[in-house]
Design a protein that fits this description.
Blueprint (H helix, E strand, L loop, with lengths): L9 H18 L3 H32 L7 E3 L1 H11 L1 H6 L3 E6 L6 E3 L1 H17 L6 E8 L3 E8 L30 H11 L4 E3 L7 E8 L7 H8 L1
Parallel strand pairs: 2-4
Antiparallel strand pairs: 1-3, 4-5, 5-7, 6-7
Helix pairs in contact: 1-2, 2-6, 3-5, 5-6, 6-7
């Protein structure tokens, strides 16, 4: 049954388009037609992400961005983030390997926002990776927090660019056409909202390593306050 879109907000129209294109891909038997549908879906996913990033940036600036905290399993976050980035790494024939420490506890967090943060960082790693290379995702437990590390084997980041990486709308001149410049800004805001830290390792060898931490908390009574303080 066709969906009536005349009175649907633009953001929801794109979401519905992504969903229906996914259904078409599952049922499409013609290889040539399937490739066209996949190309359209990839553009729709990118558009949907850009719209959501712009809306989130406005909420962050206004201090109206909220966290919904619950105890969430780490493996679920990792699996969903890799699935969300699947278009990008399949296109560049990149292998993503997850290295997750055994017996990690569930953490009190906003699952969707941590997923958004991790997806942004994985997508960023893939974007700057050579074709056919590797992206590693590490999750380890420390005394009072969980540490996430995302490593690629790309050209690395110039020292002069590092202070600007998490600024709103900032982009390297070579990649200014590839997004909104909001992904790392939003990731930083999400991590700091949870009371964690985010950054880039100084000596990553070949490539680049981004990291962020999420504290192990028993309850979330101060999460909103931490978020407002962070922004």
């Amino acid at each position: 049954m066709p969906i009536e879109l005349d009175n649907v907000p633009r953001r929801e129209k794109v979401t519905l388009l992504v969903r229906d294109l996914g259904r078409m891909l599952k049922s499409e038997q013609n290889v040539k037609a399937s490739k066209h549908v996949q190309s359209i879906q990839k553009s729709a996913v990118r558009m949907n992400r850009q719209i959501n990033d712009l809306l989130d940036a406005v909420k962050i600036e206004k201090g109206t961005f909220q966290l919904e905290l619950k105890h969430s399993p780490i493996f679920g976050v990792i699996e969903d983030a890799i699935e969300s980035a699947s278009f990008a790494f399949q296109e560049k024939e990149i292998q993503i390997c997850a290295h997750v420490e055994d017996q990690l506890p569930a953490i009190l967090c906003d699952f969707d926002r941590i997923l958004q943060c991790l997806t942004n960082l994985i997508g960023n790693a893939v974007k700057f990776s050579p074709k056919g290379s590797l992206v590693d995702v590490y999750v380890t437990q420390q005394e009072s927090e969980l540490m996430f590390r995302i490593k690629n084997f790309g050209p690395g980041i110039l020292n002069k660019d590092r202070p600007h990486l998490f600024e709103r709308f900032w982009q390297n001149n070579k990649t200014a056409h590839q997004g909104t410049g909001l992904g790392l800004f939003i990731a930083k805001s999400i991590v700091e909202a949870h009371g964690g830290k985010i950054g880039i390792e100084d000596d990553a060898g070949p490539g680049t390593v981004f990291f962020f931490t999420i504290p192990k908390r028993e309850n979330g009574t101060s999460a909103e306050g931490k978020f407002r303080k962070a922004i």
